[in-house]
Design goal:
Layout: H1 12-21, E1 28-31, H2 36-51, E2 55-59, E3 63-64, E4 67-68, H3 82-93, E5 100-106, E6 113-119, E7 128-129, E8 134-138, E9 146-148, H4 151-183, E10 190-197, H5 207-215, H6 217-222, E11 230-233, E12 236-241, E13 247-252, E14 257-262, H7 263-269, E15 283-285, H8 290-306, E16 312-320, E17 326-328, E18 348-356, H9 364-376, H10 387-404
Parallel strand pairs: 1-2, 15-17
Antiparallel strand pairs: 2-6, 3-4, 5-6, 7-8, 8-9, 10-14, 10-16, 11-12, 12-13, 13-14, 16-18
Amino acid sequence: MLFSRPIADITFEDVKEFCKRFREGLRVEYKSTFDANVKKKISRVASSFANSYGGILVVGINANNGIPQEPFDGIEFDDREPRLTVENICRADIFPEVVVYQSLVPSPIPGKAFLIVQVNESPKAPHAIENSTLVYVRTGDSANPTTLADMAMIERLLLRRRELLARWGEFYGESEEFARKLLEQKSDPVLEVRIGPVYPTDLVIAREKVFDFLSDYRLQRSSGFQADSTSRHPNGAILLRKHRAARYLNIGEFGTIHYVESLESTVREAEHLSDKSDSGQVVYPFWWVVGPLLRVLGVAAALVKSHAVSCDLRIEATLANVFGHAFYLPYGEGFGLPSEAGSTVANKIRASTRCSSELLPDKQDELAADLLYQLRWPLGSDQQDTRAAVRSIVESTRQSLRTLS
């Protein structure tokens, strides 16, 4: 997911932007030809991506010391269908089989093109080649981008198959318990956000550096916490705010982020906008969750950028304890005033998306809009807000946050 759009929709402009942005390394490799020698290396490149953090192979680009060289003209392919060639090579040479996503992107020069091959990090690793005798991983070195995995690495990859979901669950299970105790949670609706590597296999940031990261005054202020509100735990550090708007932020060594905020404090901050439903119950302003969501995405973006995190991220947002509660859904001048509010029969509303860590800093608003559209959809029976309308709300909130800061 290093490209900013689905691989099937990639254009020449996307290829050019990609080449200017990324040099060869852990997740990127370039080939200037598609000859027999390159074809022999396809299975090694694809399996090494799958065994490591996923990646992109671009065929048709000349790279010098790992840096793509202009002009980006592409190449002429002798194969009638190079995508089928790659698919057949991977299917025949890699076990267990690796899923590859491809696109043949035309060059502005007639008769030339670029072949884009995407391989995601695989939960089925290790993937072996040459009759299941060799397992390759990425090195991050442009001169020697792949290396044979030693027995320790292979054992780790095998263990990864069993530990991936358990590791994600363990961190968030423990963090939920921390949040309940520290925030003294009641029955009010809660916004919960989880961000972390799709496959949390390696330590991303030492716990000491997590503590330093969360102790930064500017980060504390921009994410809605007070100074000196950082505390340690065995695998990372926590920011906590208990008065007024109660908030909780936990970051672990595997790059896992857990954010919790009670909507009780949100209503209390906005009493002049809140109202009562016909039954007398408190009505929660739904769009107040935009600000917290943008703040935690900002924290995640700062973390991956400052510590050079390179992986695909899993991003989840949940509205919990929502059954029996009503939410104001309109946004704008009449916000908080309509007599009708939306509700749902579910007690939790979940939303999820994925994004490359490299693209997260530039895609925060787009990701927030996607998650909010999913969270908004089950509430009420009125006409659903369009994705464009939700994106507009996100941009408006972003501007308000900038003004406040």
